[in-house]
Amino acid sequence: MTTRGRGLHGHVLETLGPAITAGDYPPGSVLRTDELAQRFEVSRSVMREAVRVLESMYLVESRRRVGVTVRPKSEWNVYDPQVIRWRLAGADRPHQLRSLTVLRSAIEPVAAGLAARHATAEQCAELTECALGMVATSRGHQLEGYLVHDVAFHRVILKASGNEMFARLGDVVAEVLSGRTHHDVMFEDPDPAAVTLHVQLAEAVREGDSRRAEELTREITAGALQELDVLAP
Amino acid sequence: MTTRGRGLHGHVLETLGPAITAGDYPPGSVLRTDELAQRFEVSRSVMREAVRVLESMYLVESRRRVGVTVRPKSEWNVYDPQVIRWRLAGADRPHQLRSLTVLRSAIEPVAAGLAARHATAEQCAELTECALGMVATSRGHQLEGYLVHDVAFHRVILKASGNEMFARLGDVVAEVLSGRTHHDVMFEDPDPAAVTLHVQLAEAVREGDSRRAEELTREITAGALQELDVLAP
DNA sequence: GGGAACAAAAAGTCAGACTTATATGTCACA
DNA sequence: TGTGACATATAAGTCTGACTTTTTGTTCCC
Q1: pLDDT tens-digit series, residues B35-47
Q2: Do strands A67-70 and B60-63 pair parallel, antiparallel, or not at all (unpaired)?
C-alpha cells in the first residue's frame, strides 16, 4: 500500500523491478544504462541509482564494457520485502505464495514456542485482544476485519519471540495473509477450527506453555498449507 | 571473502555500512550527503548511489530538507547478506550469531524433511560424499577441511528442499558455521555425535525417510544451540 | 594458430548549475 | 496567548556534459 515512488529513481524501480522479477528479461539479458535512461525519460544519474538498488537486491550485475546483466533467479535476494512484493504482484504469484507459506510453517511454530517463554504481559494482552477480534469477525463475511486481527496476531507472536530474524518476518506474513484474502478466492468465512486454534494459542502463550504453543502453531500453519493445496492444486 | 569494493560507492559502503550496523550512529542520527562525500573524498553522485543502497537495506531514510537519517535497528533488513556480514564482523556478533542459529533450528529440520522427499539421486550422492568428508576430517585438528564439508552438506540439504526461500539461506548457514570455526574458540575436534548425526541424515534423505531426516536435523541444530550456550553463556 | 597490440564500447567518475520539497521561523490577526 | 498564512533557508533531487577506466573483441604480425 505504501506508494514507494519516492523520487524518480523509485518510479523507475516500480516498473523495472516487477519486469525483471516477472522474468521479462531472462537471466543473462543485457541492459544498457543509457538506453534505459532514455526509455524512462530520466537522466543517467537517476538511472544509475536505480541500477545500484537492483544490484543490491542481486537482481542484476553491472559490469564495465558489458552492461547491466540480469542474474539468474537463484541469486535474487528473495527476502527483500520489495522483491517479495514485486513477485507477489506478478505471474508466479501462486508459486511464491507456496514458498512463503512453507517458510511460515517452519518459522512460526518455533517463534510461538519462544513467545510463550518471553512474551511480556502487555504482549499477552494484545494477543488475547487480537484473538477476540478474530472471533468477533469470523462470521458474516467480515473478511477484511478478520484479516486485520489475523495479521496483528501473527505479528505479535513473531515479535514476542524475542528473535529479530523472526520479528522481521512480520511483513512477509502480512503479505501472505493479505494476499490470501484479497487475490485468491475466498468466498466463505474463515475456518472455525483455525479461529479456535488462535484463541487456544493466545491461551498457551499466556500460560507460558511453550510446547503447546508450538504444537498449536504447527496445526495453524498446516491448515494454511492444506488450504493452499485446495485452492491452487 | 568476496571483496565487494566494486567501484568507489562499494568502498564507501564497506566502511559506512559496518559503522551504521555497529551502532556508531544511533537511530535518528542525521547525516548529510555533501558532508559524507567530502569525508570519503568522492563526488556527490557516488555518495548518492551509496545512500540509495543503504536506503534499500532499510538502514537509512533520505528526506528532503532533513538529510539521511539512520533508522531504528528493528527496521533493518536483517536478511540482506551484506547486512549479515557487516553485523557478524561487528561488536554484537555473539547476539547476531545466536539469532541466526535459532533461525537455523527452525528452518533446517523442515528443509531436511522436504529434502528427503525431493532430493535427486545426484544430490543424495553429494550428501553422502560430504558426510564422508566430514568423517575423514573429524579427527586430528583438520577443522578447516571439516568446515568445507559441513558447509557443503547444509547447502545441499537446503537446496534439495526445493524451496527457494530455504535454498537462499545457504549463505547464512555458511557464515554461521564459518564464524563458529574461525572467530570463536574451537580448540578441539568437532563433536563425534554431530558427525554421526550427519552421516545418518544423509542416509535418511537417501531413503526418503522424511520424518527421520527432520528429527535428526533437530538434534543437529539443538546441538549447535547448546554449543553456543557453552561457549558464550 | 597463438599472442600482442590496438580500438571501441559501456560503465564509472566528477563538477557545477539548477529545481523542488519542506522544516522552521516570522508576523499579523483573532 | 494562540493560530493561521506566508516567507525563507536548507538539503536532497535532478540534469548535463566532459572525462576516465576497464574490459572485450578484433586485427595484425610472427
Answers
A1: 999 999 999 999 9
A2: unpaired
